[in-house]
Amino acid sequence: MQGTAFAEPTVRVGGRWIALLVLADLAVWMGFFTPIQVLLPNQIQEIAPADKESMLGVVTALGAAAAVVVNPLAGALSDRTTSRFGRRHTWTLGGAILAALSLVLLSTQHTILGVALGWVAAQTCLNAMLATLTAAVPDRVPVEQRGAVSGWVGIPQVLGVVLGVVLVTALVTGTAPGYVALAVLVVLLPVPFVLFTPDDRISRADRPRFSLAGFWVSPRRHPDFAWAWITRFLVQLGNALGTLYLLYFLQDRVRVADPDTGVLILILVYTLALMATTVVAGRRSDRTGRRRVFVIWSGVVMAVAALLLAFWPTWPVAIVAAAILGAGYGVYQAVDAALITQVLPEATNRAKDLGVINIANSAPQVLGPALSAPIVVHLGGYPVLYVLTAVVTLLGSVFVQKIRSVP
């Protein structure tokens, strides 16, 4: 079993496998971003309208803190799972069921404490799903196909936002029904991937030893992994700074009459731009074998989008910025994800190591509110926030040059 589960894959995956993984990932990203973009801001605004910015920052930061712990832990446990159903699928389906129950619980909350606890529970379960689904790419996709597959897998991250926002603004009315409808999809969408794709088993004899010390990946021994983590952290910090208060930015700075619809329009523009670039860039990086140059230029493009919002906070400029940001992030999402799979330290700990990388996705959701809330309220407002977004994003993309083992 070890030879199968831990070997580098050599057989290209087909369109059916990719489509089912995309569907499962769609459930995760709808579960993550629909509450953050619409449901949580509206729910918190109803509970504490005078302190909505601060309270939203607290709730999202607590959820992200849970993700920082859960993602690598769930990944490590799945690396060591000896279930006859495979290492990953048990965690994917179990996480989906518990995440749905958490979202239903969240729909009934009428205090900030209740909302925070519900969101922490949902984040915990969704991150168990994310850890195992992320590991599917290095588990089953050969290196020369990973850019293209990562491009396809990157699409649900934004498509989930679009479909989720449409679901809770156009198809379902009200915060509580929105949570319930979202919960149903979070359970249903991963089922085909769990039922109809293979998942390698390992024996108890082949199971890697579990150790808390194993969560530390030495930058001295694995410098490329460390630089990949830093790059991802800074770009995602820029993303967190720039998107957390999007609804309030349109409402209070741009003065859009219907900010909920405004968010939906910007997300649609962003998604179309991302879908236009992500698979193309991933395939191009596969053909050339080069990853770093794509990451660098994607960061430059995303920084330009942030500066547009900083200095020209108008509705037409916001639409242009959304298109530019989507195009840049599409390239980044596909190519950086492929790059990271090439610097993982050990095949026996793929999900755990990707969980450590995912801390670079989650930790900015903790730090982002801590930085952005005082900036918006006290230290210059949205112009300063979006300039900082541009600087941080650009730094993250430039540091990818420190990675030496991947061209």
TrEMBL record:
The keyword Isomerase does not apply. It is found in: Cell membrane. Keywords: Membrane, Transmembrane, Transmembrane helix. InterPro entries: MFS_dom (IPR020846), MFS_trans_sf (IPR036259). It is a multi-pass membrane protein. Its main location: membrane. The chain crosses the membrane at residues 17-36, 56-77, 89-106, 112-137, 149-172, 178-197, 229-250, 262-281, 293-312, 318-344, 356-377, 383-400. Residues 224-407 form the Major facilitator superfamily (MFS) profile domain. This is MFS transporter.
